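Two proteins were folded this term; both appear here.
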Amino acid sequence: MKTGNHGRVMAALMSLFCVPAPALTVHGGSVNFRADVVDAPCSVALESRELQVDLGQVRSNQFGAMGSYSGITPFTLVLENCSASVSTQVGVGFSGVADGKDPLILAAGKGSNAAHGIGIGIFDHRGDLIPINTEAFSPVALQEGENRLQFFARYRSTARQVTAGDASAVASFNLTYQ
């Protein structure tokens, strides 16, 4: 019996030394949720909302004449969860700062290091130029589920001589359902 009491005494003594530490709460950061609720036949896929199209580097002397183009760079806008029973077609329009000499294309370049004599044209899947700041262009048939809309971008010279510098631009896109 002494052995049993000894175990109970040891357990009681150990419980006195095993006091849990008080809880400590620290700020760990924040989570930003970005979303839109839309009343539309499709939703724009997350990877297409802030799309980055890399036109790369082109030599300023590769443009032989005003109106000449660089090579094409394809890009895709992805629509998801589409309901073809709501709308059967979608058209896409692009808006942004138009080039001062050619209002059909985007002005390229920003700041004191901007390239001059060049803009960016956006083309539909057939290769037709989509004029900037106009209504939706070239409607395509909507399929149930995911739809991948193909486009192309190209530099276009707006002067006889193109000077080197930053040639980036930003365009927003709008969807028109029919």
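Next, the second protein.
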Amino acid sequence: MRDDLFDLVQLAQKGDHKALEAIIQSFFPAIRSQRMNVAADRQDDLEQVIVETMIKKILSYDLTNSPDFTSFLSRYCCKQGLA
């Protein structure tokens, strides 16, 4: 998964929308599980915020310094209280 994810991030940063969607889909089980941590009327909002944040981070991630995006995203989510 690590190499696949690296390749997908690289493609997404070059404008490949299918690669971006594949990344988000691979994390969707974790995103969905976070919905249960908020009130029912806020679950869709939380999911949207997480996906929007992921997109921004995917597109701005510096692949030259650290190719382990999964660890980066996990650390980011923990800092934000999302994991």
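The mean pLDDT is 86. Residues 2-79 form a domain with the Rna Polymerase Sigma Factor; Chain: A fold (CATH 1.10.1740). These notes refer to the second protein only.
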